[in-house]
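Reviewers of the previous submission asked for a worked example of the structure-prediction workflow described in the proposal, so we include one complete record here. The input consisted solely of the amino acid sequence. No template or homolog information was supplied to the procedure at any stage.
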Amino acid sequence: MNAQPAMAGEGSMTTHTQAPDHTTTPRHPPGGDIAQTHTPSAPAGPCVQVPGRVGPSARISLVVSDMDGTLLTPQKQVTPRAQAAARALRAAGVPLCLVSSRPPGGMEMYFDQLGIDTPYGALNGGTIFNADGTIRSSLVLDPHAVREALRILQSRSLEAWLFKGHGWLVDNRLGDYVQAESNAVRMTPTVVPDLAAHVHDVGKITGSSTDFEAIARQEVEMGRLLAGRASVARCSRWFLDITPPQATKGHAVRHLAALYGVGVENVACIGDMVNDVPMLSIAGLSIAMGQALPDVRAKAHYTTAPNTEDGWARAMEDLVLPRCVPPPRQPPAKRHATPPTHAGQG
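From that input alone, the workflow returned the following structure tokens.
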């Protein structure tokens, strides 16, 4: 999932307006994320198998993990137990790769804690980065779709941000969630007078509003208007992500698996939100967090404890580490980036 603003007195999903708290990170609402607020958590005991899925793989050679609501606690921390589990994966020879709606800087900031130096998928998996931060491949929106999305967001009084590679563009430094997001991902946006002048090579557009119902309405309306040209999905109650239609976490998993020479049937994926479903539905071992929405849990082989109770570490300990088999190869440390692929191409 993506950044989630901390807001004083956060209510239910039907609340119209809440003043954001700019002194705290936007990925940490006091009442939990969209799933945590509305979905009963799984029990804190052992991981529970979900009926209906074909049995999970007995051999795992790659782990691909979501970050917010999954690997990270609601306070955006990696617990000591999770750090130990990440070290155990490394000792077993199985790489841990991260895939998130976050921009690259908001992912790299956790690499030292986790002890990882692996490629990763940012911007909902549409841009694959090497461990050193260079771009390996990227999917970008068609410029015409970017212009139309910006026009719709502006007409609906939603603020818009553009993400291009390592860059983050805004047209209002004082926007409701800009400072909070900047604090969370340790990035400073570039302020431009007109976002419409920067429509090329855009990997993601984010629309934001303190009117949560407006965000929900635009998920449906923009999804219809941009059908075939962009994927439109809420990553939280206050953020709407618009990405190339192929830019899903499933795309990232297939790309990362190919780098290590393994099939998706030998990949373990773990997540909590709707944008994690494309990877959970194809993984050989898929795990939903305890606070995940029912539709997300239904796509997983197992449900673990919530991220408030070390669910990520429990899943690694109980489900992944016993199945670990090192992959047949390691990806090259560096590779020249391929040209950006526009939606509808290749």
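The longest helix spans residues 212-225. We consider this example representative of the routine output the project will generate in years two and three.
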